[in-house]
Structure formats: structure tokens, C-alpha cells
């Protein structure tokens, strides 16, 4: 409960800092949406030239993309850790965090929270609804509960991967690390994994399981006769839990190695 | 004096060399990236022989060379400049006997050269082994491509500088930097070749500098733009380089009069 209270305090703080630079705030919201729109533009442009993507129709691909945006928005709201290594390790801000009673990762997550990213999740839900209607999908109450469960699982998958990558900062003092390049590959799960070869499919399923933030869980809601439903969809929450647990262990182990900045 | 700039390239090169985890992970991720787009385009083509004026083979080469050139021209100068403006250390740079912008560009070049030699070249070899990439056969094409690659770097760096320098005016230009990244990735042709855009958008793209970063050089490399046309698009790059110099120098001159350091 203390964390909920902390969340609220940090949120108020966030609002105050961000509204100082109002124009920039809106540009940022817009550019975030555009950034995600980039992939949607890719899909739409590509489908001007073709009818199917490895057997998937435009509406199906867009539907998967809409799903993908929901966990992605929640993830970017809370795991906005791009500068972690520079800010907390090289500059030594981790010292300040470690002297406080709340768990260090929770503090870092809350300090860097970016609530406007949730707008992306809303847009994703709208995209899902539109393409779902085009596909003639029916959505009942159990689907709705499944949706929450699967989205939660997807967010955990994201969080797990991302916490682990951020924690590398404790082991290597590389200033940029893998994180800046992650944004290149984090989107691949939203395409039907069937188009990739076995190795990549394996990697996307079990090693960097980005298939669980998009195509697998989204396929749960597609029509039975589309032939795209993946039995792996129900594994999403499990994969999420496994990855987030492993990542937290890795993180906690990393924190013990932290020695503060030299200066 | 010129030696000082060369030293800056060298120092940045060595700094990059010191952080090797970065480098190994980068190669892996770029390979994954090229692979993913390779399969994506294969699925998009299906049985169709050409799309948007590209054959499947040309598209494979295009994707490979575009991502590899991105490794060379990509840098975070916008962020570096914006940070130095925001934390005020740019004030110190003003009194140093060198051109700040040139120093930044040289740092970017050191970084780019590092990636060119240790990343792009071996990466390209690996990619050629895995995927059916067709390399150009004529030495002339290679020559023009490398000259164009230098201009890709210059133009991308100029766009980065412009974005970074905006920190003089808006104090917090995080949003602009992100917007710029989206625009460069989307419109430069790394993700979708410009010829795939619907007619009206393609027409707009012809009047923007982004295509000069990836689309034009990669088209030369894949052999879609040949001979006299290749020289023409090179000319277009040179033109953009010259045009972009003006706003940068102008902002730089103006900005030094209005610098205020927050909390400084």
C-alpha cells in the first residue's frame, strides 16, 4: 500500500515538472504516438502492395498491432529506464536511492514514470476494436477478463526483459549498452512469427520472448477458422512471471555489486 | 589546429573501443534486425516478383546495406548537444579556441568510423554469408556509394545538430528529439523504401532531406540508380548538405546571445 501512496506522490511531482514545459509535453505525447504510428504506417503502406503477409490479412495484422500497443503503453509508462546506467551508475544517483527504505527498483521506476504513454494503450484498444469489428470478432465478458490477464502477462514479459537489460549496467560500465538499440527489435513480436525462420522464431519465443507481447496473446481473440490461433497464447502470463522473476534476481544481484561513483 | 580535430576523432574512436560490450551487442542486434526485415519482406513479396520497383533480391540487398549504413551514420549528437546546453557546460565550450559544432561533428565521425571499421564491414560480411545479398560489381558504384555514405553521415549529423541546438530555445527538447528520430527512421528509407509510399507522400519526400540519408545511397548500392543518375543523386546530397549548413550557423550565431543556464 505504501507503494500506491508513493505512486501518487511521484505522480503529482511528475505532473508539476512536466507542466512547466507544456509545449514540449505535448510534442512528446505526439511524437510518442507517431513513433508507434510508424509501425502502423509500415503495415498500411506495405498492404498497399500486397494482399497478405504470410497468410495474414491486413485487418489481422493491424489487430495484432493494436493489441501490442496496449502492453507497450503500460510498459513505457513504468519502465522508462533509458538513461539508467548514465544517471544512476556513472553519476552515482543510485547512492541516494539506496539510502531510502522503499525497494530501489520501485523508486527508480516511479521516478522515471511517464504516464502520457498510456495514451498509446488507449489508441491501441481503439485500433483493436476497429480491426476486430472488420474481422467480425465477438467480444464477451470472459474475453475481457482474458484480455486483462494476457496484457498483464505481456507487460511482465516486457518488464522482465527490460529490467534484465537495465541491470547489465551494474556489471558493465558501457555508457550506451544494449538499451538504445532495443527499440529496434522490441516490435518484432507483433508480426506473425510464422514468417521468420526457425531460429528467429525460437529466439522470439523463448530467449527474448517478444512474441508474447503481441502475436501470441493477440491470436487468442482471432476467429477459430483463421487458423492463426496459437496454443502458446495461454502461456503468456507464465512466461511473464518467469522472466520478471529471473530479471529481479539478476537486478538484486547487480545492486550488490554497485559501489557508487568515484567522484 | 586541424590536428586537434583529428585528435578528437581519434579520442572518440578509442573511447568507443574501450566500451566493447556495446559493440558486440550492437552487431548481434543489427543482424537480428536485418534478419527480421529480411523475413518480413520475403513474406510481403510472397509470389510477386517486384514491388515498388524493387525485385526481391534488390530488396534484400537494400535492407542489408541500409541497416549497415545506419550503423555508420547514426549518432546521438542531438542528445549530447542538448545536454551540454541544458547543464550549461556549453558556456565553457564558447571560450575554447575551437569550433564547438565542428568538434561535435568530429566526435560523431570518430564514433562513425569506429562502427564503419569494426561493425559495418564485419557485419556486412556476416550478413552476406547468411542472406542472399548481391554486392555491386563495378568499382565505380562502390566509389560513389562510399562518397554518398559520407554525405549520409554529414546530413544526418546536421539534422541531429539542428535538433540539439533547439535546446537553446525550448529548454527541454526531449519531444523534438524523439520526433526527429521517428522522422529520420521513417522517411530516410531504412524501414520502407521511399518508392513504396503512396504517390503524394513520395512527392513530399522528394523535397525533404531525409531520403538523402538512406534511400538515395542504398538505391545506388542496389544498382537501381546507375551512371549519370547516381551522380545526380550525389549532387542532391551535396545540395542538402550546403542548404542545411545555413540554419545551423544561423541558430548558432543567434543562440550564443540568448543562452541562459537553468540553475546556473
Which strand order does the major sheet of chain B show? 1-2
- The class by helix and strand makeup of chain B works out as mainly alpha
Amino-to-carboxy terminus distance of chain B: 31 Å
How many E strands of chain B?
A: 2
Largest contact between chains: A-B, 45 and 41 residues
Features of the shown structure:
heterodimer, A: 263 residues, mainly alpha, 12 helices, globular, B: 264 residues, two-stranded antiparallel sheet, 75% helix
Kindly describe this structure.
The complex is a heterodimer of chains A (263) and B (264). Chain A is mainly α and 263 residues long. Chain A contains twelve helices and no strands. Chain A has helices spanning 2-18, 22-46, 58-78, 84-90, 94-98, 104-111, 118-135, 141-171, 179-185, 198-207, 215-219, 236-257. In chain A, helix 3 (58-78) packs across helix 8 (141-171). Chain A is globular. Chain B has 264 residues and is an all-alpha fold. Chain B has helices spanning 2-18, 20-45, 56-73, 77-86, 90-95, 100-130, 139-165, 167-170, 174-187, 199-205, 215-221, 227-258; strands spanning 50-51, 54-55. Chain B has a two-stranded antiparallel sheet. In chain B, strand 1 and strand 2 form a beta hairpin. In chain B, helix 2 (20-45) packs across helix 6, helix 6 (100-130) packs across helix 7 (139-165) and helix 7 runs antiparallel to helix 9 (174-187). Chain B is globular and about 60 Å long. The model of chain B has no long low-confidence stretch (mean pLDDT 86). The A-B interface holds A 21, 23-32, 34-35, 38, 41-42, 45-46, 48-50, 52-54, 168, 172-178, 180-182, 184-185, 188, 191-192, 195-197, 200, 203 and B 19-22, 25-26, 29-30, 32-33, 35-36, 39-40, 42-46, 48, 51-52, 76, 170-176, 178-179, 181-182, 185-186, 191-192, 196-198.
